[in-house]
Amino acid sequence: MKIGILGGGQLARMLALEGIPLGHRFTVLEGAPDPPAGVASAVVAAAYDDPDGLAAVAAAADVVTYEFENVPADSAAYLAARVPALPPPGALQVSQDRLAEKRMFRELGISTAPFHPVDGPEDVEEAVAVTGLPAVIKTRRLGYDGKGQEVVRSLGEAEAAVEELGAGLIVEGFVAFERELSVLAVAGREGGRAFYPLTENHHRGGILRVSYAPAPGLAPLRAPAPALTPAPDLPRTSDLTPSLQSEAERLAALVLDRLDYIGVLAIELFEVGGRLLANEMAPRVHNSGHWTLDGADVSQFENHIRAVTGMPLATPRVPGPAAMVNVIGELPDPGAVASIPGAHLHLYGKAPRPGRKIGHVNVTARDEAAVMRAVSRVWELLPGAGELPMATGG
Ligand code: AMP
Rounded distance, CA 5 to CA 272, Å? Predict the structure, then answer.
């Protein structure tokens, strides 16, 4: 099929690289020069709201998907009127607004931190009465990687933060979580569903640094298996982690149902006292699922392509533990990374720049201790990476 993608960054690149072996051709809409996806797709060089650009992508595609959720609503509607646009634009709309997202979670019976909308300093007292202190004040729209948010510890700090951030905000109670997890769910056009094991995520400065999967402490492997050829009797991913895993899948399924969802959906969760609170969702392939390129027999990218093109989904099999280390700002020596057994380098073809995600390294090994050793070696090759976030193990 011919697949259009809004956005030509690393997610579009990895979607195309995983979709080409299935026989698909890709066209991306991307205004930035020399986009990462350009190596694997035709590029329509225009902004996401450019009518000619949108028309060109619609004309070149049997189905259109997105690599980011902040697609302008009019662009999504324009495309959806001409060609199947998946996930459905309604899912984009909800995920563009933290308030709508949290309200949806609550309507579905999914726990979240307490929250309250705020549009100016006059709303702060009421909001903080609901959320308690400390609290996190976030912009409702267009926040990413920790941008547009502040932790506040007093009413005065909250008022100052609201003055600074402006209107259209949400205040959330600060969650003293044990760890951050995410679940990736996939829904197919023909009704199939698949889930990846919960992943443990570590952020620094609001940016994902390291993921461990399956989230340690949840998923003891029942049978040893060689890394690349899982035995046919290996338990399915969803059998491995009886409690939190099945709870995460149940919550994700509620969201898939509500949004008539098709494609990969990521939900970021806080684990607190054995419970899961939903923080936010991403209606797309997700950084916390990059480990699936090497740690699962079918990646999130391939399953997303399967979903939006109407192929059957693949139930992911995960033969052993894996980790993903983001490469941010500066390139490590590729040869040095490649010399670490079990390390798989993925670079995005982006120019290094402080704070910019330019690649990731996946690590696979036979047990969690071996994964940690290899992750430590990768970490030492990353310039200025600071202290390594270790797996907490629940
Ligand atoms: P977000 O943009 O909502 O994903 O937030 C970025 C990061 O800030 C999260 O991954 C958490 O580490 C932290 N964070 C966000 N919301 C809260 C909260 N309500 N309580 C504690 N930490 C939070």
Answer: 36
Q: How far is the CA of 37 from the centre of ligand 1 (A)?
A: 29
Q: Find the helix or strand (DSSP H, E) in which 277 lies.
A: strand 275-282
Residue nearest (by alpha carbon) to ligand 1 atom 2: 146
The pTM assigned to this predicted structure is 0.93
Q: For residues 39 and 59, give the distance between their C-alpha atoms in angstroms, rounded to a whole number.
A: 21
CB of 150 shorter than 6 A to ligand 1:
no
Say whether the peptide bond before residue 87 is cis (omega within 30 degrees of 0). yes
CB of 356 closer than 6 angstroms to any ligand 1 atom: no
Measure the CA–CA gap between 154 and 13, rounded to whole angstroms: 44
What's the gap in Å between 135 CA and the centre of ligand 1? 10
Residue that the structure tokens 């699922």 belong to = 289
**CB 146 near ligand 1, within 6 Å:** yes
Tokens of 274: 């054995």
Which residues make beta-bridge pairs with 180? 201, 270
Give the mutation target among 96, 144, 279 for probing the ligand 1 site: most ligand atoms within 8 A of CB: 279
Bridge partners for 212 per DSSP: 200, 323
CA 41 – ligand 1 centroid, Å: 34
Say how many Å lie between the CA of residue 339 and the centre of ligand 1.
Answer: 35
Choose among 92, 103, 113, 122: nearest CA to 171.
Answer: 113
**Hunting for tokens 């563009």 — which residue is that?**
96
- Long-range (24+ apart) CB contacts under 8 A made by 201-206 are 201/268, 201/288, 202/389, 203/146, 204/386, 204/389, 205/146, 206/145, 206/146, 206/147, 206/149
212/94 Cα distance (integer angstroms): 28
Establish whether residue 268 lines the binding site of ligand 1, counting it when its CB lies within 6 angstroms of any ligand atom.
Answer: yes
> In which band, very low, low, confident or very high, does the pLDDT at 242 lie, cut at 50, 70 and 90?
low
Give whole-number Cα distances, 380 to 200, 324, 341, 377, in Å. 21, 14, 15, 5
Q: What is the pLDDT of residues 291-340, one digit of tens each?
A: 999 999 999 999 999 999 999 999 999 999 999 999 999 999 999 999 99
